Every structure is written in structure tokens, then in C-alpha cells.
Amino acid sequence: MAHAYTPGLKVTEKSVVRKDRRLPLKGQVMVKAGDAVTSDQVVARTELPGNVQTVNVAGLLGLLAEDVPSHMLKKIGDPV
């Protein structure tokens, strides 16, 4: 069996992982900021109307995320 080594990788006990999670649409957050959660715990939920497709516009256009709104033809909330 082959093995891979990643330089600088450290395996530590009891690591704390902090992640920002965002819902694609408005929804209900089930936990408070700073609460400890498990990997299988539902932290938020939302209803998706139909087949929603998330698009990384910043990545596709080669822009920083904060620069995307000024390059869009439609504003947030405009019908498409």
C-alpha cells in the first residue's frame, strides 16, 4: 500500500475546528454562536424551492467575493 506524506501536517489530539457555515437561502439556525457541536449535528436548516444550484460567481469570474456585486447586472433581490 502506498503512503503519502504532507510536509507540515500535524496530527493533534482534541483539536478544535472552527468553520463558518452559510445557508443558501434564509432559514432557521438551530444553535447559538460559540456552541460546541458534533460532526453529525444539524446546526441550521432551510427550505429549498425546487432544484437550487449554487454558483461560485467569484471563482468563475476570477474576482474577489467582495467585488462580485459591482460586476453583476442584477442586484440582490431582483427577479431573474
Topology:
Blueprint (H helix, E strand, L loop, with lengths): L27 E2 L14 E2 L11 H5 L19
Antiparallel strand pairs: 1-2
How would you characterize this protein structure?
The model has no long low-confidence stretch (mean pLDDT 85). The chain is 6% helix and 5% strand. Strands 1-2 form a two-stranded antiparallel ribbon. It contains one helix and two strands; from the N terminus they run E-E-H. The chain starts with 27 loop residues before the first strand and ends in a 19-residue tail after the last helix. With 80 residues, the chain is largely without helices or strands.
Provide the gyration radius in Å: 19 Å
Could you say which structural class the secondary elements and strand pairing correspond to? little secondary structure
Helix % is: under 10%
**How many helical stretches?**
1
β-strand percent reads 5-15%
What is the mean predicted local confidence, pLDDT?
A: 85
What are the defining features of this structure?
80 residues, little secondary structure
Write a short abstract of this structure.
Helices cover 6% and strands 5% of the residues. The model has no long low-confidence stretch (mean pLDDT 85). It has 80 residues and is mostly loops.
